[in-house]
Amino acid sequence: xxxxxxxxxxWSQYLNRxxxxxxxRARPATAFVSSPEPRTIxxxxxxxxxxxxxxxxxxxxxxxxxxxxxxxxxxxxMFEAELHGFAWLDDLAASGDAKARDCAQDWLWEWIALYGGxxxxxxxxxxxxxxxxxxxxxxxxxxxxxxGDASETFLRSLGSQTLFAAKRWQAAAPGLPRxxxxxxxxxxxxxxxxxDAHIAPALRGLEQACDEQxxxxxMLPTRNPExxxxxxxxxxxxxxxxxxxxxxxxxxxxxxxxxxxxTLRTLRHADGGLARFHGGxxxxxxxxxxxLAASGIKTAQPDGLSMGYVRLSAGRSSLIIDAAAPPAxxxxxxxxxxxxxxxxxxxxxxxxxxxxxxxxFGVEWRRAGRATPSHSxxxxxxxxxxxxxxxxxxxxxxxxxxxxxxIQLSQASDGLRFEGGHxxxxxxFGLVHARTIEMTFDGRGIAGEDMLLSMEQAHRRRFxxxxxxxxxxxxxxxxxxxxxPDADAELDMNGAAVSIAxxxxxxxxxxxxxxxxxxxxxxxxxxxxxxxxxxxxxIILTGRAMEYATRVRWSLAKAxxxxxxxxxxxxxxxxxxxx
Length: 579
Prior knowledge:
- The protein has 16 helices and 21 strands.
- A hairpin with a 5-residue loop joins strand 16 and strand 17 (497-501).
- Helix 2 (44-51) packs across helix 4 and helix 11 (225-244) runs antiparallel to helix 12.
- It has helices spanning 4-26, 44-51, 77-85, 88-95, 98-115, 125-137, 139-143, 148-168, 176-191, 199-213, 225-244, 251-266, 287-295, 363-370, 426-429, 457-469, and strands at 54-57, 60-63, 305-306, 309-314, 317-322, 342-346, 349-353, 378-380, 387-388, 398-399, 407-411, 415-422, 432-440, 445-453, 475-483, 488-491, 497-501, 507-512, 517-525, 534-545, 549-558.
């Protein structure tokens, strides 16, 4: 018997097909109100690759020169969705030569012939909204040199898709899909003659989405930084289109932009890329800077907690920490078990990273990327601090993760200090993970301490039982520090330090206090824009928890600096002999 989640999905798909066919039969007569102004930015190099027959979407490459996009067999559903979303039009328009235009025009009119009647996988609210924005943005590029009947076909299809999106945008999933769907309707309503009746309902929907899904701190429930950037970009595009049409953006719309801009600045590393957490990547090149400039919002969050992240920055260094529990419920379908993980960038060069989302490389890579060992944090007994749910409608939800994540920010004698903890391992092993990180005022030194603590009597009984199960050998822990692929690391002859060379010429030295074994092992760096994972390295500190308090200290410093001392960073906490 099908579960409720499956039935709801099947019903939604049925309604999409029904309304898509109805919209296609409506054949609305329409025209452009004014010449559309392109706002989306594509990649010249990617456009050249597409026109040469190298089709790379969602981490898969299909090489078939001279073959239409719609004649190839998509390797997976994500590849297929990217085809039907038409974001690739940005790249062909960026290339802009005759070959790129021919490809864009041929593929667009072939899509209309094959799927314009309301058939195919592209008729979902979010993909339709994404497609509407691209078709409108690049209308002049698409219609250049085309006969009048082609223009009529193009506009009629735009009208049909607008009717469908206006009817179904509320069925899009909360978060980025909902914003893509509703902004597509607004875009089309402003640009197309006869579609203006759909603007007001869509604007009310956008206001509601901003109120419900953009928190007071400018955050999304998914806590995905890249999704937040995409939503922010949609909101700024829509605000510009409304102002050009002499329509004032609503108060919730304006307030969402004002809240998100400072948050994105907090989540932005020194090299301009976003912190890679909870399924998000660094963001398309130039997208963040362009969106922030278009917003006109100059304010920035001070170093502190924003969307559940803490940023420490000094000199040319930025360090961003996941300082909150993973998203809960439906928002956790793409979440990672990354509490207390951090990323560190020095100038324009990433140094410490998380592995990233493996979603474009298949189910196994996706699951591996979500696990705690794929993040720069402590792992106990090889297990994640949160797990994927059981089979069924919640199989991709994170469950049994941290419930309490207390944090404190303060100023140390020579820099900034972060202190935090989480109880993701308490129910299983009776231990709480606590992490302290300090950054010097010049950003040239980092000192950290990771502790495993059993403070409460109930936790100590659980820890004693777990310790007995190991025959008193201790609970194994590993503290991972994943390095960016462009960072070359080498363990010294004594096995006491690791030298890390960046392509900028900087040398950083990683040291530990000797309480844990230091190892240099292979790792991977997962990027959606690549065909396969990139090989990288990771530093791992390993040891065993034998007592109610176990700690390991480590430091990172530039080689030309005097190495910072590994200090006692928990002077007020329990010492190693506490029992």
